[in-house]
Amino acid sequence: MKENTKDHAALAGEFNKDEPRVDWHDKTLWWIREKRDKAAHGVPEWELLRETASGIKENVLSRLHEYLLQFEEQATRNGIKVHWAADAKEHNEIVLSILRQQKVNQMVKSKSMLTEECHLNEYLKEQGIEVVDTDLGERVVQLAGEPPSHIVLPCIHKKKEEIGEIFHQHLGTPAGNADPQFLTEAARQHLREKFLTRRVALTGVNFAVAETGEFVVCTNEGNADMGAHLADVHIACMGIEKLIPQRRHLGVFLRLLTRSATGQPITTYSSHFKKPRPRQEMHIVLVDNGRSVHLGRKDFRSSLKCIRCAACFNTCPVYRRSGGHSYHTAVAGPIGSILAPNLDMKKYADLPFASTLCGSCSNVCPVKIDIHEQLYKWRQVIVQAGNAPIAKKAAMQTMTWVLSNPAVYHTAGKAGRWFMANVPFAVNNSLNPWYKQRDMPEVPGKSFGEWYKKNKK
Amino acid sequence: MSSRDKILGAVKENQPDFRELPPLPDSPVGGTEQLSAKFVSVLEAIGGTAYIVSGFDRIASILREQHHDALRIVSGCPELAFLAETAAHYDDPHTLENIDLAVLRSHFGVAENGACWITEDCMIERALPFIAQHLALIIRKKDIVANMHEAYERIAAAEAAGTAYGFATFIAGPSKTADIEQSLVLGAHGPRSMTVFLLDEEMSDAGFY
Amino acid sequence: MKVGLFIPCYVDQFYPQVGIATLQLLEKYGCEVIYPTGQTCCGQPMANSGFEHLTKGSNALFIKNFEEFDYIVCPSGSCVLHIKDHLHSEHGGEVDPAVNIRRKIYELVEFLTDVLKIENIDAKFQHKVGVHQSCHGQRGLKLSQMSELVAAPFSKPEHLLKMVQGIELVELDRKDECCGFGGTFCVAEEAVSVKMGKDRVADHLHHGAEYITSADMSCLMHLDGILKRQKSKTRVKHIAEILNSQE
């Protein structure tokens, strides 16, 4: 896998070279935000639901140990084989071992951001296993050789002409055909053959119920079900934080999830898996991969409440204008920016700074994660850990000195204004990033402080 | 130390102080007419079709009209034996691949989102509601709850009365995707169409709850 | 009442007219207004860049300058929010002076509506005006209802602006999207920052705004930079100036 060395700002800069495309990406995602708004406003008790969901998830995190044990016991009793994976590597190895046991080298997979996080597809490919992603958006990016750019709408960054071209290359559809109906039908036929012939299906988990040992998978396409009900082996992968205490809590989350994600009242299918079919094997892999560490971070643990709806992506003015690939991580957007530094603070040090801290994300989050406040707090942690660029550190030290000393501040201010007024090219040049696309502010004759001294004191 | 022990140990050590579970919101009360009207309107908005019918004769005639070129129809309702296969079981779900239409009983509908709750004992095989090209579900018009909170209360009551499921699902309309530039397309991998028949008269209570 | 006037550093240096309008407005409504000349900055630029640990000096200076007042008023939502959320002192004693300050600091608009409770304004501004809802003022200080929430709408800035004679407030497509300034973000992520600003400007221009106003000069500074680069006739004007205007 290609190692990315560019940070969000650089990648976003590249993304912004094509302004019409940015407009298209931004408008598409804003439209989804508007659909969410409409759906939310259709539920008068929406804010109470958010508060309830948040409270349920806070309870889960506080009793996660107990719920994990309860879930394992119930699921096992139901005939589901429960596996524990400490990290991504172990998760991948467990999945592989199940495939080897079945003596198969093919698998269908429905959407699982966890498997993206673990880079499962690449791992299995290296081991000679063919994985077919069956969610249409995921299949598109898989054929294109790219990671998804959005956790709910994987190929939102792709225009239909580009998808048409990808299908032409890989599925043999006519060149130039970009009709969504036609392309979807082609994908239906292409993937139906996979569903009917693959013996192992892997799905994600939207919610797992500790009380009953069942888990729920939500899709619009029906691909998780087509895979699972035709396969001899169903493997479900979940992060340990995806538990909820009781089945009735699903009422709260299923009311919030899809309205927050796409503005629909519910996904077409909300499938409750409790027991394997007769003669079927059902496995569930519980994955830690840094979550238990994150659970111990007082300021950041509540990000584990996330139900992966992506409402924060759709509302984020920065995400809409930089695209998911600018975040160079499996889960992008605002929530990704507060989860990723836990996985690798150095690699993802740029992400908490890819924000204006506008706060929109926190207010669409169905489980009330204080995302924008955590972005601010991660900045402090990252800088204290020594991950700020040296130039920035030096500039900040200077600023601190100036702003702690009124006399220095007044002199510096006056000098700065003098330069701007009399030597404008000192600042109005290509070295000044402000000046690239904006004029500098006009220079007044006096500062407010000087006016006040003259007129008021 | 196994990974299981490692994970559980780390979780136990790091989890925050206890936070109590909040109460769930109250479920609103709604009359049958109001709920069924809402259910129908939401279902139609999400691409499904609804018919309020007096009985199976009416269901059969609508299905014959809508799916006159269906080669293979499967149903879980003995009342439809004259136009569908009504086997209780299929050994291999792959053999359901060429089913044009599946007609199944479902337990209840949810007004707020147009979904129907169906457990596997009504599905014949788990794959059937997904693999068929078209799907029709039958509920009693009076078996519509207002929202998901009520839905789960009903599910719990059924389980307490002795009906547990190994698999069950809410189905809301036909399968769909908007992955290609947000253009909504009905008929992704599951059925291309979804019809709900609301039976508007007292039927035998066997099989419903 | 004795009001300490807190003027953001960049307003002091580049937009003194905003400070003047603020002072005049407060005096018009009967406040005794004092501007402590030893003030510099709230510390937000450092803190938002991850250098909160360097703000001890500016915090101490702030407390020293503003301890004595009944109220502290500032024509900037983001500066006020920063103080409210992050002002700390290295106090040794029982009473933390920072707590007191956080309680009595107000942004100008909310001071006028919530403390002075003014019901009429003797001002004239016969122009079409677009209101930019600055994020910190809106989502942080609750100056107006945010579009994300399912809750009753309200807007303190609009409530005041509607009292101004001759003003016409324009509708926008996106009522409360961020302008993209974001502090050091404006240069660290220049491309996205400018694109966000351009989109905000376009929304206002599309709806015929002759002026864009806000309770935060930082947003307006950023939007103004774009307007001027586009050679637009539309200007920015801080809400204090409009509420104090006689044109």
- Name the CATH class of one domain in chain A: Alpha Beta
Instruction: Please give the radius of gyration of chain A in angstroms.
Output: 25 Å
Number of domains of chain B: 1
CATH topology value of chain B: Rossmann fold
Neighbour order of strands in the largest sheet of chain A: 1-10-7-4-2-3
Largest sheet of chain B: 5 strands, parallel
Alpha-carbon distance between the termini of chain B?
48 Å
> Beta-strand percentage of chain A?
5-15%
What are the segments of chain B in which pLDDT stays under 50 over at least 5 consecutive residues? 203-209
The SSE string of chain B, one letter per element, is: HHEHEEEEHEEHEEEE
**Strand segment count of chain A:** 10
CATH architecture of chain B: 3-Layer(aba) Sandwich
What is the annotated CATH architecture of one domain in chain A? 3-Layer(aba) Sandwich
Which structural class do the helices and strands of chain A define?
A: alpha/beta
Structure classification of chain B: alpha/beta
What does this structure look like?
The complex is a heterotrimer of chains A (457), B (209) and C (247). With 457 residues, chain A is α/β, with parallel strands linked by helices. Among the domains of chain A are: 43-289, NagB/RpiA/CoA transferase-like (Rossmann fold), CATH 3.40.50.10420; 393-455, no CATH class. Helices cover 51% and strands 11% of the residues of chain A. In chain A, the strands form 2 sheets. A 6-stranded parallel β-sheet of chain A has the order 1-10-7-4-2-3, with helices on both faces. In chain A, strands 8-5-6-9 form a 4-stranded mixed β-sheet, sandwiched between helices. The longest helix of chain A is centred in the first third of the chain and has 23 residues, at 19-41. Chain A is globular, with a radius of gyration of 25 Å. The model of chain A has no long low-confidence stretch (mean pLDDT 94). With 209 residues, chain B is of the alpha/beta class. Chain B contains 5 helices and 11 strands; from the N terminus they run H-H-E-H-E-E-E-E-H-E-E-H-E-E-E-E. Chain B has a 5-stranded parallel β-sheet. Chain B has a 4-stranded mixed β-sheet with strand order 7-4-5-8. Residues 203-209 of chain B have low confidence and may be disordered. Chain C is of the alpha/beta class and 247 residues long. Chain C is built from 13 helices and 8 strands. A 4-stranded parallel β-sheet of chain C has the order 2-1-3-4, with helices on both faces. In chain C, strands 6-5-7-8 form a 4-stranded parallel β-sheet. Chains in contact: A-B, A-C.
